[in-house]
Amino acid sequence: MADSMFEKGREGFLAGTLDWDSQTFSVALMDLDTADVGVKQIGSSTNATPIVVTSTSHGFANGDLVVITGHTTNTAANGVWAVAGQAANTFQLTDPITGGNSVGNGVGGATGRAVNLGPSASGDNWDDFDGTLVGAKVNLTSPTVTNGVADAADVTFTSVTGATVEAVAVFRDTGTPSSSVMAALIDGRQIVTCAAQAASSSTSIAVERLRGGIPNGTVLAFSNGASATLSALANAGDRTITVTSTAATITAGSRADSPITGSGLPVTPNGGNITLTFDSGVNRIFKL
Q: What pLDDT band is residue 2 in, cutting at 50, 70 and 90?
């Protein structure tokens, strides 16, 4: 599974106020189509540079990291972005690493959602997300820390009913939602970064090492406005992906949102148990 760290969680681990293997951490199944302080539905997005997202009374701040998922037509908006140009009902998407602008690939309608990873107050604690809860939260057991990698025993959620689960939250559980700091968001997706410019008509793209596999046929909408379609399965650890002939140049550093093969998300509860099996690779649950 893939993960994104919440900014306040990262800050807590670095400052020593969070301790993975001595404090209680919990996991919770999330319905991201239910709005809460840290999760907002998208009304529309522009086919522009940068992409401007409309989300009524979103409450996000400039500099917040935001995960956009499930947005159709303007699929280049999906992924992890830094908020810029914040207004009451809109915000711009910029590259969180370079600060460069996103590039739209169509006018997006009322689909998908924006999840705030902070650091502002609308994305810091579990009370900003507990309205998305499906079933009941579960405490993690047997936590370990090795070389900056957090792991724990796999988790089973019992007799789960409710809406479709799009993500899993990991948080420091104080028993009080308003003081339970968010640590990680697991959504079964990853960011694919182009490692070297791929010219128009390329059939392979050099990428930064993949955290997980990518299904054959996946369309990757890159942040510079270009796209590529996988013509073969990509595997975890690959540094090159095979694609059908690209229609436009994909610049180095451009990023695309991708599903991970076999992530199990999203999943629709049917009253049975849901077992969360953490990644057995080098990143486990998350890596600082």
A: low
**Could you tell me which residues come within 8 angstroms of residue 197 by beta carbon, excluding any fewer than 6 positions away?**
249, 250, 251, 252
* Mean of the per-residue pLDDT values of the chain: 95
Give the amino acid at 102: S
Calpha distance 172→189 (Å, rounded):
23
pLDDT of residue 174 exceeding 90: yes
HSE-CB at 127 with a 13 A cutoff on CA atoms is: 8
In the predicted structure, residue 159 carries a pLDDT above the cut 80? yes
Query: What do you get for the CA distance between the two ends of the chain, in Å?
Result: 16
Dist. CA 37–CA 181, nearest whole Å:
14
Judge contact between 181 and 12, C-beta under 8 A: yes
CA distance 99 to 282: 28
**The two structure tokens encoding residue 49:** 């540079």
DSSP state of 240: E
Give the alpha-carbon dihedral of 144, 145, 149, 150, to 10 degrees.
Answer: 40
Q: H/E element holding 12?
A: helix 7-15
pLDDT at residue number 148: 87
d(CA 67, CA 37): 14
Spatial CA neighbour of 223 closest among 86, 75, 120: 75
Which tokens go with 55?
């989300």
Dump pLDDT digits (tens) for 9-44: 999 999 999 999 999 999 999 999 999 999 999 999
Q: Which residue has the tokens 């990698």?
A: 149
